[in-house]
Amino acid sequence: MTRTLVVIPTYNEADNVAWIVEQLHLAQPDVDVLIADDGSPDGTGDIADGLAADDARVHVLHRSAKQGLGSAYRAGFAWGIERGYDVLVEMDADGSHRPEDLGKLLDASAAGADLVLGSRWVEGGGVVNWPWHRRFISRGGTFYARLMLGIPIKDATGGFRAFRRETLERLPLDEVASQGYCFQIDMARRVLGADMTIVEVPITFVERERGESKMSGGIVREALWRVTVWGLQRLISKPARVLASK
């Protein structure tokens, strides 16, 4: 039986964490959940501990301070790999990733995809209650990543994903320094760079109803800067590879 771990990073998600775990288990009763809490001052970690005490499928990873999305996922992946999970899923705590869509990701993973992306921008996907500027950032970020990195992905910044354990074990996770939504682009380019497969499945992304979005100008600037650097490195290395092959 395939063991699946859904990693849910949290920071000040007291209004959402119990609800999302409940909804997740209604949709997928057999998956385990790891709540990776970055020392939330609003009591999210305490709520998570209560959930874990009542349900053996729920686990909590307490981190001392807010260290970023990428760091939380890397810690969650390491926790899950150490305990023998076969599939590790990224999922937001705020309800923007619908638990009923998780089955599509797991089916594609079971069919052999090394990484499955829940995509808002493929046929059948979409967003609900998203302001125009968020659409612009998401679509613009993916367009820029495709242009600079040559990655054939329609939703490079989405954070609803399923990795096979073997996929993560082939990646140098300790070298991944990117945070925020740039982490998603970084992981996708590394999977493709290792000649592994990515499959996109349609999801519906729903804007959060409770709590505050973690999107910030700093997150956008980090993504712009890192993708530009990676793109320039790619362009510089191309002539060297061509010369070496002659």
Structure description:
- This protein has 246 residues and is of the alpha/beta class.
- The protein has a single domain, classed as Spore Coat Polysaccharide Biosynthesis Protein SpsA, Chain A, CATH 3.90.550.10.
- Helix content is 44%, strand content 17%.
- The protein is built from 8 helices and 9 strands.
- It has helices at 17-27, 44-54, 69-82, 102-110, 132-149, 165-169, 182-193, 217-245, and strands spanning 4-10, 32-37, 58-62, 87-90, 115-119, 126-128, 161-164, 198-202, 204-206.
- A 7-stranded mixed β-sheet has the order 3-2-1-4-7-5-8, sandwiched between helices. Strands 6-9 form a two-stranded parallel ribbon.
- Helix 1 links the parallel strand 1 (4-10) and strand 2.
- Helix 5 runs parallel beside helix 8 and helix 7 (182-193) packs parallel to helix 8 (217-245).
- The longest helix has 29 residues, at 217-245.
- It is globular, with a radius of gyration of 18 Å.
- The protein starts with a strand and ends with a helix.
- 41% of the residues are buried.
- The model is unreliable at 240-246 (pLDDT under 50).
List the helices and strands and how they pair.
Elements: E1 4-10, H1 17-27, E2 32-37, H2 44-54, E3 58-62, H3 69-82, E4 87-90, H4 102-110, E5 115-119, E6 126-128, H5 132-149, E7 161-164, H6 165-169, H7 182-193, E8 198-202, E9 204-206, H8 217-245
Parallel strand pairs: 1-2, 1-4, 2-3, 5-8, 6-9
Antiparallel strand pairs: 4-7, 5-7
Helix pairs in contact: 5-8, 7-8
